[in-house]
Amino acid sequence: MSQSAQLHRETSPQRVACAVLTVSDTRTPQTDSGGDLVVERLQSAGHAVLERQIVRDDPPAIRSAIQRLVGRGDIDAILLTGGTGISSRDQTYETVSVLLTRTLPGYGELFRSLSYAEIGAAAMLSRAVGGLVGQVVVLTMPGSPAGVRLAMDRLIVPELAHLVREARR
To answer: Structure pTM?
Structure first.
Protein backbone atom coordinates (compact mmCIF):
# COMPACT_ATOMS: atom_id res chain seq x y z
CA MET A 1 0.00 0.00 0.00
CA SER A 2 1.32 3.45 -0.87
CA GLN A 3 2.14 5.96 1.84
CA SER A 4 -0.54 8.28 0.44
CA ALA A 5 -3.25 5.61 0.66
CA GLN A 6 -2.13 4.73 4.18
CA LEU A 7 -2.25 8.40 5.26
CA HIS A 8 -5.74 8.77 3.78
CA ARG A 9 -6.95 5.73 5.70
CA GLU A 10 -5.44 7.06 8.93
CA THR A 11 -7.23 10.40 8.53
CA SER A 12 -10.56 8.88 7.49
CA PRO A 13 -13.56 8.90 9.83
CA GLN A 14 -13.57 6.01 12.28
CA ARG A 15 -17.37 5.67 12.20
CA VAL A 16 -19.42 5.96 9.03
CA ALA A 17 -23.17 6.59 9.23
CA CYS A 18 -24.87 4.15 6.86
CA ALA A 19 -28.25 3.23 5.47
CA VAL A 20 -28.93 -0.28 4.16
CA LEU A 21 -31.51 -0.83 1.43
CA THR A 22 -32.57 -4.28 0.30
CA VAL A 23 -34.16 -4.20 -3.15
CA SER A 24 -36.58 -7.10 -3.44
CA ASP A 25 -40.17 -8.00 -4.22
CA THR A 26 -39.99 -11.12 -2.05
CA ARG A 27 -37.75 -10.46 0.99
CA THR A 28 -39.20 -9.65 4.39
CA PRO A 29 -37.40 -8.52 7.54
CA GLN A 30 -37.37 -12.19 8.58
CA THR A 31 -35.90 -13.50 5.29
CA ASP A 32 -33.50 -10.68 4.38
CA SER A 33 -30.24 -12.59 4.94
CA GLY A 34 -28.30 -10.32 2.56
CA GLY A 35 -29.37 -7.20 4.46
CA ASP A 36 -28.55 -8.94 7.75
CA LEU A 37 -25.01 -9.60 6.50
CA VAL A 38 -24.51 -5.98 5.42
CA VAL A 39 -25.61 -4.73 8.84
CA GLU A 40 -23.47 -7.30 10.67
CA ARG A 41 -20.34 -6.44 8.65
CA LEU A 42 -20.85 -2.69 9.10
CA GLN A 43 -21.43 -2.91 12.85
CA SER A 44 -18.49 -5.30 13.31
CA ALA A 45 -16.29 -2.67 11.64
CA GLY A 46 -17.55 0.03 14.05
CA HIS A 47 -19.87 1.79 11.62
CA ALA A 48 -23.43 2.86 12.44
CA VAL A 49 -26.55 1.70 10.62
CA LEU A 50 -28.96 4.61 10.98
CA GLU A 51 -31.66 3.12 8.78
CA ARG A 52 -32.54 -0.17 7.15
CA GLN A 53 -35.34 -0.65 4.65
CA ILE A 54 -36.66 -3.16 2.15
CA VAL A 55 -37.89 -1.52 -1.07
CA ARG A 56 -39.70 -3.07 -4.02
CA ASP A 57 -37.66 -3.71 -7.16
CA ASP A 58 -39.37 -0.72 -8.74
CA PRO A 59 -37.48 2.34 -10.04
CA PRO A 60 -39.70 5.00 -8.41
CA ALA A 61 -39.51 3.21 -5.04
CA ILE A 62 -35.71 2.79 -5.24
CA ARG A 63 -35.20 6.37 -6.42
CA SER A 64 -37.45 7.78 -3.70
CA ALA A 65 -35.68 5.84 -0.96
CA ILE A 66 -32.22 6.97 -2.10
CA GLN A 67 -33.26 10.62 -2.49
CA ARG A 68 -34.90 10.63 0.93
CA LEU A 69 -31.80 9.13 2.56
CA VAL A 70 -29.47 11.59 0.81
CA GLY A 71 -31.77 14.41 1.93
CA ARG A 72 -31.53 13.41 5.60
CA GLY A 73 -28.10 14.99 5.83
CA ASP A 74 -26.74 12.53 8.40
CA ILE A 75 -26.07 9.57 6.10
CA ASP A 76 -22.53 9.10 4.74
CA ALA A 77 -23.16 5.94 2.72
CA ILE A 78 -26.08 4.01 1.28
CA LEU A 79 -25.49 0.33 0.62
CA LEU A 80 -27.99 -1.51 -1.56
CA THR A 81 -28.29 -5.25 -1.90
CA GLY A 82 -30.36 -6.93 -4.59
CA GLY A 83 -31.68 -6.14 -8.05
CA THR A 84 -28.27 -6.08 -9.77
CA GLY A 85 -28.80 -9.06 -12.08
CA ILE A 86 -30.16 -9.13 -15.61
CA SER A 87 -33.69 -10.45 -15.12
CA SER A 88 -36.56 -8.24 -16.21
CA ARG A 89 -37.31 -7.35 -12.56
CA ASP A 90 -33.73 -6.28 -11.72
CA GLN A 91 -33.90 -2.48 -11.79
CA THR A 92 -31.23 -1.39 -9.31
CA TYR A 93 -28.47 -0.72 -11.85
CA GLU A 94 -30.54 1.53 -14.12
CA THR A 95 -32.11 3.41 -11.22
CA VAL A 96 -28.93 4.04 -9.27
CA SER A 97 -26.80 4.84 -12.34
CA VAL A 98 -29.04 7.76 -13.29
CA LEU A 99 -28.83 9.23 -9.77
CA LEU A 100 -25.03 9.13 -9.47
CA THR A 101 -23.33 12.52 -9.73
CA ARG A 102 -19.91 10.82 -9.80
CA THR A 103 -19.27 7.22 -10.73
CA LEU A 104 -16.76 4.77 -9.29
CA PRO A 105 -16.23 2.43 -12.25
CA GLY A 106 -13.52 0.57 -10.33
CA TYR A 107 -16.03 -0.66 -7.75
CA GLY A 108 -18.06 -2.71 -10.24
CA GLU A 109 -14.95 -3.76 -12.13
CA LEU A 110 -13.24 -5.03 -8.97
CA PHE A 111 -16.40 -6.74 -7.75
CA ARG A 112 -16.76 -8.65 -11.01
CA SER A 113 -13.05 -9.51 -11.07
CA LEU A 114 -13.15 -10.90 -7.53
CA SER A 115 -16.41 -12.66 -8.29
CA TYR A 116 -14.90 -14.23 -11.41
CA ALA A 117 -12.14 -15.72 -9.28
CA GLU A 118 -14.82 -17.35 -7.11
CA ILE A 119 -17.59 -18.35 -9.54
CA GLY A 120 -16.15 -18.06 -13.04
CA ALA A 121 -17.85 -16.53 -16.05
CA ALA A 122 -21.22 -16.19 -14.26
CA ALA A 123 -19.68 -13.06 -12.66
CA MET A 124 -20.59 -11.16 -15.82
CA LEU A 125 -24.25 -11.31 -14.79
CA SER A 126 -23.63 -8.92 -11.90
CA ARG A 127 -24.20 -5.25 -12.56
CA ALA A 128 -22.80 -3.91 -9.29
CA VAL A 129 -22.32 -0.14 -9.56
CA GLY A 130 -21.12 2.58 -7.24
CA GLY A 131 -20.49 6.27 -6.95
CA LEU A 132 -21.64 9.41 -5.23
CA VAL A 133 -24.97 11.16 -5.01
CA GLY A 134 -23.75 14.57 -3.94
CA GLN A 135 -21.36 13.69 -1.10
CA VAL A 136 -23.07 10.41 -0.16
CA VAL A 137 -21.36 7.17 -1.18
CA VAL A 138 -23.81 4.77 -2.90
CA LEU A 139 -22.76 1.17 -3.56
CA THR A 140 -24.84 -1.71 -4.88
CA MET A 141 -24.22 -5.43 -4.59
CA PRO A 142 -26.08 -8.64 -5.38
CA GLY A 143 -28.70 -9.95 -2.98
CA SER A 144 -27.09 -13.36 -2.53
CA PRO A 145 -25.26 -13.93 0.74
CA ALA A 146 -22.11 -14.95 -1.18
CA GLY A 147 -22.20 -11.74 -3.22
CA VAL A 148 -22.77 -9.64 -0.12
CA ARG A 149 -19.88 -11.30 1.72
CA LEU A 150 -17.57 -10.72 -1.23
CA ALA A 151 -18.51 -7.05 -1.61
CA MET A 152 -18.48 -6.27 2.09
CA ASP A 153 -15.36 -8.21 3.09
CA ARG A 154 -13.12 -7.49 0.11
CA LEU A 155 -14.23 -4.03 -1.06
CA ILE A 156 -16.66 -2.05 1.05
CA VAL A 157 -15.54 -2.54 4.65
CA PRO A 158 -11.83 -2.07 3.85
CA GLU A 159 -12.41 1.19 1.94
CA LEU A 160 -15.68 2.68 3.22
CA ALA A 161 -14.15 5.25 5.57
CA HIS A 162 -11.62 6.24 2.91
CA LEU A 163 -14.42 6.64 0.34
CA VAL A 164 -16.37 8.86 2.73
CA ARG A 165 -13.28 10.94 3.48
CA GLU A 166 -12.74 11.60 -0.22
CA ALA A 167 -16.44 12.26 -0.88
CA ARG A 168 -16.47 15.01 1.76
CA ARG A 169 -13.51 16.86 0.25
So the answer is: 0.94
